[in-house]
Write a structure and sequence with these properties.
It is a single chain. This protein is an alpha/beta fold and 356 residues long. The chain is built from 13 helices and 12 strands. A 7-stranded parallel β-sheet has the order 3-2-1-4-5-6-10, with helices on both faces. Strands 7-9-11 form a 3-stranded mixed β-sheet. Strands 8-12 form a two-stranded parallel sheet. Helix 2 runs parallel beside helix 4, helix 7 crosses helix 9 and helix 9 crosses helix 11. Bound molecules: nicotinamide-adenine-dinucleotide. Belongs to the NAD(P)-dependent epimerase/dehydratase family. dTDP-glucose dehydratase subfamily. Its EC number is 4.2.1.46.
């Protein structure tokens, strides 16, 4: 089996659902259920013996060691993190704790487990660390896209904490020989994303007739990748990546935030027209985020060259699916917005008879 951390979050939950849709290898899913963890997303796996959900913290060394000892996972896929840049500006402490200390705790527990394995199993063990392109810093308009050898220049507490975790992972390979792999991916979008991030926030606000807040001039550029493509890239790297290597993962799709928002408005105008007129009327410019990186761009040629991976979705196909999903799932959105998703487990099991 594999141990997934943060598998109740946006990408982790998509990964676990996709994994169990394509494989029967069981998953232990360790997640602290912070505000970003949502077990309702994992509802399709309730009662599925291949999925063992453990409510716990990656900083809890005793718990993590116990999971390794009891379940002997052949691999770790490490998603758990504090992931929102704005929140990291507001309260960086949680980012250092989870992203740095938590990764350190996992690495140490993985190292102890891996060192004690018999030779054959030790060679097969993998620790895959899921990271971000934000560690590389900000690009000018004509700079080449980030390659895996780009110097690290993190600018936000979030990216600095992820950069620190990447360095720990690298060092555990070089110093101890732990068989690690790192992926640095661009911005993800898709179903089950918490509506604090740009794309779901804009969809949810537009449908509610609320302003669509654009930071600064809206010309901050990001590369965008459909979440299912990120998950397939991780599966490829886990299966065939070269030990100790990092792989950039991207969608070959650079877009300015304002362009993203106008694309969403146009899709909503088509799929759910509003009597009040185009959703673009709701676009509102707000004061920029402090230290807002101007441009990220990913050169994803290494993963294509070595592992033959390319995204399956274009931005047009992925964003249409995403908007349609949010239109089709108002219950999921309402539960997230009201906070009711936190009670989902209690409600789901309330009144159910225990089977003998
Ligand atoms: N979202 C993106 O666009 C993006 C892009 C590239 C890389 N990443 C990376 O991918 C990973 C997942 O991102 P996401 O967008 O799914 O994040 P998310 O915020 O949606 O989910 C994070 C999950 O981690 C859990 N978690 C947080 N602290 C924990 C702790 N101490 N112990 C156990 N679980 C804890 C949360 O409960 C949540 O379920 C992160 O490492 C992030 O840095 C994200």
């Amino acid at each position: 089996m594999i141990l997934v951390t943060g598998g109740a979050g946006f990408i982790g939950a998509n990964f676990v659902l996709d994994w169990l849709a394509t494989s029967d290898e069981p998953v232990i899913n360790l997640d602290a259920l912070t505000y970003a963890g949502n077990r309702e997303t994992l509802a399709p796996l309730e009662g599925d013996a291949r999925h063992l959900f453990v409510h716990g913290d990656i900083c809890d060394r005793a718990l993590v060691e116990r999971l390794f000892a009891e379940h002997k996972p052949r691999a770790v896929v490490h998603f758990a993190a504090e992931s929102h840049v704005d929140r990291s500006i507001d309260g960086p402490g949680a980012f250092v704790r989870t992203n740095v200390d938590g990764t350190f705790t996992l690495l140490e527990a993985a190292r102890a487990h891996w060192s004690a394995l018999p030779a054959g199993e030790r060679e097969l063990f993998r620790f895959l660390h899921v990271s971000t392109d934000e560690v590389y810093g900000s690009l000018g308009p004509n700079d080449p896209a980030f390659t895996e050898t780009k110097t690290y220049e993190p600018n936000s507490p979030y990216s600095a904490s992820k950069a620190a975790s990447d360095h720990l992972v690298r060092a555990w390979h070089h110093t101890y020989g732990l068989p690690v792999l790192t992926t640095n991916c661009s911005n993800n979008y898709g179903h089950y994303q918490f509506p604090e991030k740009l794309i779901p926030l804009m969809i949810v606000n537009a449908l509610a007739g609320k302003p669509l807040p654009i930071y600064g001039d809206g010309q901050n550029v990001r590369d965008w990748l459909y979440v299912g493509d990120h998950c397939s890239a991780i599966r490829e790297v886990l299966a065939r990546g070269r030990l100790g290597e990092t792989y950039n993962v991207g969608g070959w799709n650079e877009m300015a935030n304002l362009e993203i928002v106008h694309t969403l408005c146009a899709l909503l105008d088509e799929l759910r027209p509003s009597a009040a007129g185009s959703y673009a009327r709701l676009v509102t410019y707000v004061k920029d985020r402090p230290g807002h990186d101007r441009r990220y761009a990913i050169d994803a040629r290494k993963i294509e060259r070595e592992l033959g991976w390319r995204p399956a979705e274009t931005f047009q196909s992925g964003i249409r699916k995403t908007v349609q999903w949010y239109l089709d799932n108002p219950g999921w959105i309402a539960n997230v917005q009201s906070g009711a998703y936190r009670d989902w487990v209690a409600r789901n099991y309330a009144g159910r008879e225990v089977q003998p």
